[in-house]
Design brief:
binds pyridoxal-5'-phosphate, seven-stranded mixed beta sheet, Aspartate Aminotransferase, domain 2, single chain, alpha/beta, 386 residues, five-stranded mixed beta sheet, 14% strand
Length: 386
Amino acid sequence: METHDKQPGFSTRAVHESCGFSGSTGAVMPPVFLTSTFASGNPDGFDYTRSGNPNFRLLERSAASLEGGQYATCFASGVSAITAVLSTLKQGDLVLAEENLYGCTYRLLERVMAKFGIQTRYVDMARTEHWGIIKRLRPALVWLESPTNPLLKIVDIAGVSAVAREAEVPVVVDNTFASPYLQRPLELGATLSLSSTTKYINGHSDSLGGVVVTNEAGWQEKMIFAQKALGLQPGPFDAWLTARGQRTLALRMERHCATALELARWLETHPKVKLVRYPFLPSHPQYDLARRQMRGGSGMVTFELNSSVEQALAFCRKLKYITLAESLGGVESLICHPATMTHASVPAEVRRQVGIGDGLLRLSVGLEDLEDLRADLECALGALQP
Ligand SMILES: *Cc1c(COP(=O)(O)O)cnc(C)c1O
């Protein structure tokens, strides 16, 4: 006899758990609830959109399910989600962060949180000998990303989480670069999994958003409080767009991964390319860990040309289908020159020290045909002055 006790698969949950609130209309997709307030005493318990809206609830239910967590809270952007988590700290608290952090996270820690007496220490979490610092310093939070931006370093989430758990230190993982289809930090032992849904989860570069998922009721209470008390909520239409994008996450990630792997392999053989970093290339220093921790290598490929800043930018401008722009994870391919864009504020010496050279480029592989992207890159590489 057939039973339906088993948890449905990722894509089934992505499609079905973000639907509802259609009332008696039979609409298979949810409406957008463009309302600021709700009549008091309604059976669904809504009161004011800053603290909840049917579109948030649908997105939160499906996002939690896809991350393998119990609770989720949605926010206006990834940075809003980061703000929500950091707002739980108090004066004198210490954050222990991976040294390779998303630029806006670093800026929030250094230019905002520091003013309120919250200090951050940065360490290379890819080196297991650094994990002992967690036990020694007992920070209020451990903050990490994997893969990191732009060098796609992989941090052992299960390893760090196990050490932190012993020290009773919560671990936040920024899961934006992987997406819950490829990596689920809560299942690896993290306390919070945070994403900028602006990237892969929405996937269409048409709205900003953020989400924090957890299994701990206490943390969920803090996130709901931050959403409301700090005014970090998204607009209902943005939440609707994000839920809409999320329904096709698995399909998109499969294609992002497949095309990115092919391009990474091909770039690695090109004489004008000095270095290629992609988590699922055997040449990646943490290839085995990446294979263990992630279901696919994701859609980001970082490579380095033997070139000056000007030559690297000229290369980018020559591309036809790949647009020179910040951001990632959308249907369209984008290329970014970290030294003059995302990491421009980092002093040149520090940049070089961490491996962000003048010719380094970060490619967000979109959903175009592989042949067209390869031809585009090949043509621009051909035009590159030696
Ligand atoms: C983009 C990004 C963020 C910030 O998200 P926004 O939606 O732009 O506010 C945070 N972390 C990572 C890793 C990102 O790539």
